[in-house]
Amino acid sequence: MPVHTQGTDTAGEPAVRKAEAPSGPRGTTRAATASRGRRAAAAPYLLLLPALLATLILLGWPLVKNGMLSFQNLNARQLIQHLTEWNGAENYQEALGSSEFWAVVQRTVYFTAANVVLIMLLGTLIGLLLARLGRRMRLLLLLGLVLAWAMPVIAATTVYQWLFAQRFGVVNWVLDKAGWHSMADYNWLGTQFSTFSVVTLLIVWQSVPFVAINLYAATTTVPKELYEAASLDGANSWTSFTSVTFPFLRPFLYATTFLEVIWVFKAFPQIFAINEGGPDRLTETLPIYAFVEGVGNQHYGMGAAISFLTILVLIVITSYYLRAVIKQEEDEL
Amino acid sequence: MKRSPFGRIWPNATAVLLFVVFAFPVYWMFATAFKPQGDIISEDPVWFPTDVTLAHFDKAVHADHFWTLVRNSVTVTVVAVLLSLVIALLASFALARMRFKGRRGFIVTFMLAQMAPWEVMVIAIYMLVRDSDMLDSLVPLTAFYMMMVLPLTLLTLRGYVAAVPKELEESAMVDGCTRTQAFVKVIFPLLAPGLMATSLFGFITAWNEFPLVLILNKGIEHQTLPLWLSQFRTAFGDDWGATMAASSLFALPILILFIFLQRKAVSGLTDGAVKG
User: Fold this and answer.
1) How far apart are CA A138 and CA A124, in angstroms?
2) Would you call A325 and B174 a contact, using CB atoms and an 8 Å cutoff?
3) What is the CATH number of domain B65-274?
4) For bias kind Low complexity, which ranges apply (chain A) (predicted)?
C-alpha cells in the first residue's frame, strides 16, 4: 500500500510542475497544490495506513481477544483441548465478589499513590536544585541521575536484590553500623511492608531522574524578565517561585504526574522479578495478580477478566488527564 | 546575588549526597562484578576493589546459551525499532504536515495506544500467538515490541517533523523537487538526530521487555536477556559476583547509548510526546 503513496507523489508531480513553471514561485506552489487535488487527498491516509494496520492487529485485536477470553471458562483442560466454553459474566462475578480482588485493588491504589507522591516531590525538589547549582555541580548531579535513569529495569532489580541481600548486603551492613543492630541479618523480602519498601525505593530511584531533568529543562525556559519584574515588585525567592516559576511549570507537573501514575500502576518487572509478588502473594498489584491468576494458576479466563478490570481502573484514574489531553489537541488544531 | 555561606554550601552538599545515592547502585553493580569472591562475601563491604578479576564475567559469558540470548535480544530489539521508525516516519509526516479529516482522531488514537497496558494484555496475546502456532518464536515478539514502541516513536517524530520549518520544504519544491524528494533531501537529514534520539527509547523498551517474553517463549534458546538475567541468581545459587557481571553486561549497551543520546532525547520526549 505505501507504494501507492510514492506513486502519487513522484509520478504525478513533475508533469504538473513543468506545466506551471512559468507562473512564478508563489503561484507554482499554490497551483500545484490545487491541481494535485483528489489524488493528494488520499496521501495522508496512505501514509498512516501501516501505523493504523499495526495498531489494529497488534493492539486492537489483543484487546478484543482479552474481552472475549474474560467471558470464557478457560483453564488448563480447555486450553490443551482447544475448547471454548462461554460462561457469561461468571468470571467478573467471581472476581468482583471476592475480598481478595478488592484487597489487591486497594493495595495497588495505595502503592501507586505512595510512589507517585514520592517521585513528584523528590523529582521537583531535585529539578529546582539543579536549576540553582553551579555548572560543575549540576553536571555531577545530572550524571548520577542519568545513570539511574538509564539502568535497565531488570538489571536494576537484580542490583537491588544484591543491595538488600540478607547476607553480605550493603544496606543491612550500613543499618547495623548506624546502630540498628537488629537489621544486621534482616530479610527484606520476608514481609509485605519491607518488600514494598524495596520496590518503592527502586521505582522512585528509577523515576525521579525523568521528572527532575525535565523539570530542570522546563525552568530554563522561564523568561528572565519575569523574575526581574517580580523582584522589582518586591518579591522574595519564595513569592517569585509561587508567582513565576510554579505557574510556568504547572502544565508540565500535571502531565508528568499522570504519566507517572500510569507507569507505576502498570509496574510489572520490578515487583515480579524481585519476589514474584511474595511473600504469600501479599505484594501482588493488579497486573501481577492478573498474571499469577491467569498464567500461574492457569485460570486464563479469570486472568483476562482481572486484566480487563485493571484496564478499567486505570482508565478511571487517568480519565481526567485523558480528557485534558484530548481537549488540548482540539485547541491546537 | 548575596548569599550566606550556608546558602552556598547546602545546595552543593545536597548535590554530592544525591549523586552518591543515585550513582551508587550502578557503581556497586560494576564494583561487585570485578571483585574477587572473597571481597564480595566479606563481613565488611570492600568499597573500592583493589584486586580486580574477570572471573565473574567469564562465568556469565560461558553460561548456557548466553550468546544465543544475546543474538535474540539484539535481533528482536534492532528489528523492532527499525520497523517502528519506518512506519512512524511515514505517519508522522502525514500528521505533522498535512491537513485532512480525522487527523485529530488519529493523534488521539496513538496517544491512547501509547498508554496501552501491555503488562495486563499478555494473557490475550499468549492465546493469539498460541492459536497461530507461533510460541517460542522471535517473530511475534518482534512484532509486539514494534507496536509497543510505535506510538511514542510516532508522536515524538511528529514533533521533530513539525519543528523543521515548512519554508525549507517549500523552497526545495520551488527549486523543482517533488514533495517526496523534498522530504528525502531536506527534511530527512535534519531529522537524523531526532531519529537517533527517538530510537533510544525504543531500544530501551524492547531491550528491557520482560512480561511478554516470560509468557511466550518458554524454550531457553528462544528467550531474551532480561528473562535470563532475572533467573540468573537462582540458577547460579546466589553467586552475586557472576550475577552482577551478567547485569553489567546487560546494562552496558543501554548505559552507553543513553549517555550519548540523552540530551537530545529529553527535549524530544518533552516536545513531542508528553506535551502532546
Assistant:
1) 15
2) no
3) 1.10.3720.10
4) 23-35
> Is B275–A2 a contact, with Cβ atoms under 8 angstroms apart?
no
Inter-chain contact A129–B98, Cβ cutoff 8 Å?
no
In sequence order, the β-bridge partners of residue A86 are A72
Q: Do B211 and A143 touch (CB under 8 A)?
A: no
DSSP code per residue over B170-203? HHHHHTT--HHHHIIIIIHHHHHHHHHHHHHHHH
In this structure, the answer to whether residues A296 and A241 fall within a common structural domain is yes
Say yes or no: A171 contacts chain B, CB-CB below 8 A: no
Is residue A315 situated within a structural domain?
A: yes
Average pLDDT for residues A273-278, to the nearest whole number?
86
Q: A17 pLDDT exceeds 70?
A: no
Task: Tell me the mean pLDDT in the region B59-74.
Answer: 92
What's the DSSP call for residue A245?
A: I
Residues A213 and A119 occupy one common structural domain? yes
Q: Is residue A100 located within the same domain as residue A189?
A: yes
Same domain? For A139 and A51 the reply is: no
pLDDT tens digits for range A195-204: 999 999 999 9
Q: Tell me which residues of chain A, numbers 90 to 129, contact chain B at a CB-CB cutoff of 8 Å.
A: 126, 129
Residue A115 shares a structural domain with residue A65? no
**Coil, helix or strand for A146?**
helix
Examine the predicted complex and report whether its ipTM is higher than 0.95. no
Residue A155 contacts B where some CB pair is shorter than 8 Å? yes
Structural domain total, chain A: 2
List of residues 6+ apart from B194 with CB closer than 8 A: B156, B157, B160, B264, B268
Residue from A154, A227, A331 whose CB has the most chain B CBs within 10 Å, to mutate: A154
Q: Are residues A277 and A316 in the same domain?
A: yes
pLDDT number for residue A45:
92
What's the CATH code of the domain at A282?
1.10.3720.10
Give yes or no: residues A251 and A308 share one domain: yes
Same domain, A9 and A96: no
A85 belongs to a structural domain? no
Angle CA(A96)–CA(A97)–CA(A102) in degrees, nearest 5?
A: 60
**Each residue's pLDDT tens digit, A210-253:** 999 989 988 888 888 888 888 888 878 788 888 888 888 888 88
> Amino acid identity of B50?
T
> Which of A63 and A34 is assigned the larger pLDDT?
A63
Residue of B nearest to A28 (CA): B174
Task: Kindly state whether residue A84 falls inside one of the protein's structural domains.
Answer: no
Question: What angle (nearest 5°) sits at the alpha carbon of residue B254, between those of residues B253 and B255?
Answer: 95
Q: Work out the mean pLDDT of chain A and round it to a whole number.
A: 84
pLDDT recorded at residue A211: 93
Residue B121 and residue B215 in contact, taking contact as beta carbons nearer than 8 Å: no
* Residue A111: domain span: 92-332
State pTM to two decimals: 0.85
Other CB atoms within a 10 A radius of the CB of residue A99 amount to 7
A222 touches chain B (CB under 8 A): no
